Amino acid sequence: MKTLFKKIFNRFLVLNLIAMAVVVILLCVGVHYGLDIYTHHGQGIVVPELKGMSFEKAYRLLEENKLTIVVSDSGYNKQLPADCILAQTPGYGQKVKEGHVVYVTVNSPSSPTFAIPDIVDNSSVREAEARLMAMGFQLTPTQLVDGEKDWVYGILCRGRRVSNGDRIPIDYPLTLMVGKGTIDDSEDVEYIDPTYPDAASETDDFEEVKEPPTIH
C-alpha cells in the first residue's frame, strides 16, 4: 500500500501539479490585466459641455476629442437660436471611450404645431384647460358667451376661431369661449294665458215658443 502511494504521488507528479497551478494563476492574472489594458480601464475622454452651443461648434469640439455627434431629437426654445444644443447624452463630465457617440437634441428654427384636441362642445372649462396646458399651450382669460355655464363652445387663436383637429403653433396663446349660464334674450318666448268664455254670458240659441191665440 505504501509502495502504491509513493508511485502515485511521486516527485515528478507533484512538480507537474505545481507547474499547472502556476500556469493557471499566471493566465488569470494576465487576462485580468490584459482586459484592463485593452479597455483602457480607469482612462477615458471627458465629455465636454455642449448645451447652448451651436451644432457646428459642438461637432468640431467632439471631433477634436475623437468623439462622434448624432442628432437624436429636436425641441423648441424661443429664447435660444436655431440649431443650438438643448440636451446631450452622455452628460457633461462623464468619461467615455474614444469614438463614443454623443446624442444631442437641437433647437428647431420654428415652434412645433399641435392639433387641437376634441374639446369644443365636448368638455368643461376645467377639462379643456388641463388638456391644453398639458400639451404646452398658454391660455388667456376665458371669453364668456351665452350658453350652459362652464361649458366650452369654442377656441380663439389670435382673434380667429379654431376647431378640433386644427394644428396650432405651441407658442400661440389660446382663448376658451365658455358659457356663462344664460340664454340670449332674443330667444325668449312670450307665453299668453288662454281665455275661456264665461258660462253666465252664454245666450240661448232657441227662440221663445208663443202659444197660439184663443178663438172665441
Q: Could you characterize the architecture of this molecule?
A:
About 25% of the residues lie in helices and about 20% in strands. The chain has about 220 residues and is α+β, with helices and mostly antiparallel strands. The protein has a 4-stranded mixed beta sheet, covered by helices on one side. Strands 2-5-3 form a 3-stranded mixed beta sheet, covered by helices on one side. Strands 1-4 form a two-stranded antiparallel sheet. The chain has helices spanning about 1-10, 10-40, 55-65, 125-135, and strands at about 45, 70-75, 85-90, 95, 100-105, 115, 145, 150-155, 160, 165-170, 175-180.
Keywords, separated by commas or semicolons:
11 strands; alpha+beta; four-stranded mixed beta sheet; single chain; three-stranded mixed beta sheet; 216 residues; 4 helices
This entry's quaternary arrangement is single chain
Q: Give the DSSP E fraction (strand runs of 2 or more residues).
A: 15-25%
Strand order of the largest sheet: 7-11-8-9
Main beta sheet strand tally, sense and closure: 4 strands, mixed
- pLDDT < 50 stretches: 199-210
Shape: elongated
The end-to-end distance, rounded to whole angstroms, is 186 Å
β-strand number: 11
Radius of gyration: 46 Å
Average pLDDT = 81
Note the run of SSEs as H and E: HHEHEEEEEHEEEEE
Helix content: 25-40%
How many distinct helices?
Answer: 4
Structural class designation: alpha+beta
